[in-house]
Amino acid sequence: MQTSGSFHKIKLLSVIVDGIDQALKKIMEIEIKRVREAGTSKEEGDFLPTQETIEDAGCLIATATETFKDGLLMYIDRLMNNVALFLETNMPDRVIVFAISIFNILVPQFPENLPPNHNKYIVAACHALKHNIPHSQPHAIRAIGIWAEFGQDQCSPHLAKVSVSKLYNEARKRFTISGQSGDVAACDTAVEALGRICEFHRDKIEGSKVVQLWLEFLPLKHDIDAARSAHGLLSRLIRRSDSDLFGNANDNLHKIISVVKEIVSEPDLLRDQEAIDQLTEFINQHGGME
């Protein structure tokens, strides 16, 4: 697929999208049938028996999106609408998680196509976290962060506040789980997503309170992508002397300095040299690294 040229591109894209549609529907149908035969929608297995198939489908969609983004525009509404059918909260747990994971691939590439299914996407993610659906945590947390950034116009104060609550509950788990647990990385993802809500929807939440809660979780060290994103936001807030970050009478300055020192001591926790230089300058202005 990645080496295909423009020849027969439209026909090829149609075949690819049809194939993706059929594969997704087949996976969903198999899971729904399995649940009905078992007489319950509760997860009982240790892992998804179709996990390899799910990963292959996700890889196919990601590759098609990256390779044929412009050409996929004419098909993306159909694909999203078909997947959105399985975001309904009365669907089997694993079907919901799969649908969320597919939206997580599509939305950043095609944010303008999200609005018709905006509410289903975020409600499904919050539902998965609320009910602790097995294996849903990383997908649902990532969905809330993606929604916060790309669903700006459709975000209501209610949804923003509910999302903050869900993310905070996930983030604070880092204080009660082993530092070697894979769940710690999911906690970092939750903190990063919380930061996105602070960045894009602060007018819909208790801005100063939520920003301070977010600051208390920094720095992040277990998920490098989440860490770089969150620390990049911290750098931007410092640069513009954000009042919610610094607090009344600079009450949060000591915490900020402590966090920045840890980040600067591990440059890999920042995405680019500009952020490194900016935070290093901030530390130099406040007594240096000593």
Please describe what this structure looks like:
The chain is 67% helix and 0% strand. It contains 13 helices and no strands.
Question: What keywords describe this structure?
Answer:
mainly alpha, disordered N terminus, 290 residues
Name the assembly state. Answer: single chain
What average pLDDT do the residues reach?
Answer: 83
**Portion of residues within helices:** 55-70%
SS-based class:
mainly alpha
How are the SSEs placed, and which strands pair?
Elements: H1 9-38, H2 51-67, H3 69-84, H4 93-109, H5 118-130, H6 137-150, H7 157-171, H8 183-200, H9 207-216, H10 224-239, H11 243-246, H12 253-264, H13 273-284
Helix pairs in contact: 1-2, 1-3, 2-4, 3-4, 4-5, 4-6, 5-6, 5-7, 6-8, 7-8, 8-9, 8-10, 10-13, 12-13
Summarize the structure.
This protein has helices spanning 9-38, 51-67, 69-84, 93-109, 118-130, 137-150, 157-171, 183-200, 207-216, 224-239, 243-246, 253-264, 273-284. With 290 residues, the chain is mostly helical.
